[in-house]
Structures are given as C-alpha cells and as structure tokens.
Please model this.
Amino acid sequence: MAWGGGAMGGAGAPFAGSTAAGSNLPFAGVPSEMQERVDKLLAHEPVHDHEVVVYEPIASDTLPFSLRRLVLPHRRALAGAMVLVVIETVALQTGPLLTAIAIDDGIRLRNRAVIAAVAGLYVLSVLVGAVTSRSRIAWTGRVGERLLYDLRLKVFGQFQRLSIDFFSREKAGRLMTRMTSDLDNLTQLLQEGLVQLFVQGLTVVFVSGVLIALNPPLAAITLLVVVPSMLAATVWYRSASDQTFDVVRDRIADVMAHLQESLSGVRIVTAHNRQSRNVAEHRTIVDAYRRSNDATAMVGGAYGGVTETVGMAGQVVILVVGGRWVLNGSLEIGELVAFILYLAAFFAPIQQLVQLYNTYQQGQASVRKLRGLLAEEPSVAQHPNAEPLPLLRGEVRLEGVSFAYTPGRDVLHGIDLTIPVGETFAFVGETGAGKSTIAKLVNRLYDPTAGRVLLDGIDIRGATLASVHAQVGTVPQEAFLFGGSIRDNVTFARPDASEDEVIEACRLVGLSDLLERLPTGLDTPVHERGVSVSSGERQLLALARVFLARPRILVLDEATSNLDLRSEGRIEEALDTLLEGRTAILIAHRLATAMRADRIAVIHAGEVVEIGSHEALVAKGGRYADMVATWHRHGQGSASEE
Model:
C-alpha cells in the first residue's frame, strides 16, 4: 500500500476527538492533549519517499531449499565470524596449559617471576577472549539477521507466487507457523546455534590436540573410553530426535491453525455459545503439542544422562591412572592437573553440544517444513514467453471449458459461451452449480482442466498474469479491506491515482456523505479487515477500489447483496456509468440482479442449460421461468432471496 499521512498521521494531520461522529468508527487517532508533543516529534522525523515496487511472479527454484543454500551467499561474512571463533577458542583454552606451567615451573621451584608472567598471560588471554567473544556475537547477530531478512522475503514471495487453490487447501494458521515459529527456530540456529556448534566443536578438537601433546598414553586411554560410547549414543539420539522434532513442528502448526480459525470466527463462536467447546478442543490440541515436546525432552534427557556418565567415568579413569604415574615419577603433577582441567574442558563442550543439537534439530525440522513450502509450484503458472495483453475491447469466450477442483470430479462440463463487447451477462443457478467458478476462470484465478478461456480472442494462458488481472476486475460478495486508511484501500490497485480520481471514485459509489462526516476524510483509518465500518460501507469501498482501477471486464459476485435499498440504488446508477462500453459478468444469487442483465445463462450441474434475455427465458417456460415463479410466490419484497 501507499501509506499516506492518514492512518498514522503526518505532521499537523487532524484527528478526531474520541469517535468519528456519525461514522460508527472507533477512535484511532492521537488524543488532543498529546497532539502538540506528537507534532514536535514528527517535525524532526526524516522524510522518506514512497518506495516504488514492481512485482513480477518469482521464477521457480529448481534446487531444494537447505541451510547450505541459505548461508552460501553470506560465506565471506561467515568466514570472518569463524576467524573470530578460532581466536576466541584459543584464547579461552590456554588457561589449563598456563596452570601447568605455573605449578611445575613456578610454584614447585618457588620462581616468582614465572608465576607473575603466567598470571599476566592468563589475564591477557581472558581479555582477548572477552573482546573477541563480544565481537563475534555482534558479528554473527548481524549476519544472522541478514540471513533471516532474505529468508522472510523468500517465504513471503513464495506466498505471493502461489495460486489460490493452495490457500484453499492449506489452513492459514499452518502458513503463519512457517513465518513465525519456524523462522524463530531458524533465528536461534543461525544467530547462535551454528556458531556455537562450531565453537564447541573447535574446542573439542583443540583440547584433543592439547591432550595428545601433553601425554599421548593418557590421551589414548581417554579417547578409547569416551569416543566409542559417545558415538553410539549420538547415533541413537540423532535417529530418535529427527522423528520427535518433526512431530513437534506438526503439532505447533495445529495449535496455530486452531488459534487463527478461532480468532477469525470469534463472532460465530460467540453467537453459537461455542466458547467452552472451543476451549476443550484447544486443550486437546495443546496437550498433543505438550506431549510431543515431552517426547523430545525424554530423548534429550536420556542422551544427556549417558554423556554425563561417560564423562565422569573418563575423569575417574584418568585420576586413577594419572595419579599412579605421578606417584612413580613418570608424570609431573602440573601436567596431571592440566590434563584433568582439559578433560573437564573436553566434556563441557560435549554437554553443550547436546543442547545445541536440540536447537539444530529444531532448525532442521523447520528447514524441512520450509523446503516443502518453497517447493510448491503454482497451479496457475505464467508461461516463460507470456506477453502482456493489449488494451482489451472486452469480448469473453469460453471454448469447451471443463474444470475440476478435485481430479475426477468436474464442476464444469464442456461450456461453450461468448459474451460480446459491452454486454452485461448474468449467471444464475442453484448453489454449487458452478457460477462463481466461471468467474474465477475468466479472471485466471484457476486454469480450466480442458478447453480455453479467450479475451478478445487471446488465450489468457499465454498472457502475463499481471495484464489479465489489470484488465479483469473482480468485486467479491464479501469485501475485504486492509488495515490502513480509506485512501489506502481505494487506491490499492492504483497507488499513483490522483486525489481527484480517488474522490470521483468514492462519489460514484455513494461514499461522499460518509467522507463528509469523517473529520479526516480519506485519511480515516478503517482498521484490519475493515471491522470499524459496516458491511455495506465495506462493499462500497470495495466497489470504489475496482472503479478506480477501471478494468475493461468487470466481474461482480453479487456485489450489492450487503447494501440497503438506498445504497443499492446509488450503486446501480454508478454501475451504469462504469459499465458503459465495458463487459460485465454478474454472478447473480438473486433474480433482481439478473433481471438487469442483457442476457442470462442458467447453470445447472456445471452446464449451461438455458441462455437468453429475461423476457425470452420467462417466455420459454423452462428452469429460469420456474425460478422467477418461485421468486414471485415469495413476493418481490423478498427479492434478496433466491
């Protein structure tokens, strides 16, 4: 959206007191007693030009998503972080070696100079470790944020790229999990997890080298006791944790999906007194999530217990064997102390690696979920050689069109139909007959499973998606408004529209009275999903939005069904102006709408069974005539009922 100064207000922007009088809009501005302070703050804010974004459908990525592919573009920055890690590790692991020197060459020989020198080097190593640790954390934090910035854009771009059918079969809560919980896991993994894995792994390698250098026999005993047991435990843990963490990702997706659905349908929940039932359902779902986390905790606990036992056993063996060697004079006491200290430093990273491996497994589970999302292909894809549609005259033709949402279950069967330029054409029929499906095919929200949809004789599968959607406008039965101002919503399809054009579009649909009542006019906030305006006002705003876009072909899915009679009369007048010289397709759920069309097609079981003007179809005495007779029996005052 092109955010104007209205929703949040620019410097000096006027705001309502507590309620926009007569508009049913809740207060969303700045209290009058705070306005002066707000204006002072805004006066010092930098001015940013509106960003111009040109969106093109994202090309398919043939390679699967992975952590390696994610970090590869940032390999130089990561290499710098690794250098800091090496310096930090060496600086922090010199302590035991310095301790051995201080004991054998300083304390035993009462050499104060050696003790002082070693103490100075010890302090220096601590300072170097602290400085490099701080630098490394800041460095990896910035790199991690850049990685996540790229990934967030990649995931959101994939959402924009996918077709409508994907969102019809996937729960919104599950998709939100990909952008929230899964990315949070990757945040932990990228900003600290991978680096700490490297830090602790490097520590193990460094300490192993020092142990071998200090005393190869003791080092061999240590490695023979520790490594086989740790390797066996790690192999088991990896297999068990892979399964448990995948289950955790599925269960948190279930939690988010149920939460999103409950919040979106909160009015229906309240109206039908389903609160207690919903709480019970959510308790069951959350309990499944808890139990999946319990399973991962049990696996991690078992692995941690094994590693601690192995570590203690290793220290006992070294203390017994090393102590005997000190007693018989084949090993210096300082070397044994250093060896034991390094042995503790050897097992501490292993314990840390257990926890980091949990983070790694959570991140990998999220990577697998994101890989599945990013591997999705749009069912309505733009051809690589697609050409933009020229300015359309407005002819619509369907040639042998069949369509199925589910393979093998056709909704439409071999429809042949031509709508001439400038004709207002209505589709009527019972619910589920296929009326709205035809509209979705014309707007290329779906592609037919057989046959062709042509605009001015051009198969729309060979045209760019942007050019099709720019010239085929749609007003759904349930209008959707975005959080922002009235201006933002009206100019949604044309952010560059002038003030006069926006005002004219609003005037055409009968919004002038509403705007005159609002203190901030077009800049009045409407809030998320338009909850601060009535359903009729939402529909008026949706009509103003499509009016401003000026499509050559207009699809209205009973766009006036939520309006009162007075507003509907104003819309009819506006439609006469808008539809002059344009083609209109009306999805009519009530006959009062269909009667205004030039021609009417009756859809039954996915087929066109009758077609003609209102008068001709009534005279024919077929299915449409029966519908009209039923409508008259219920009284024309109930024209909203089919």
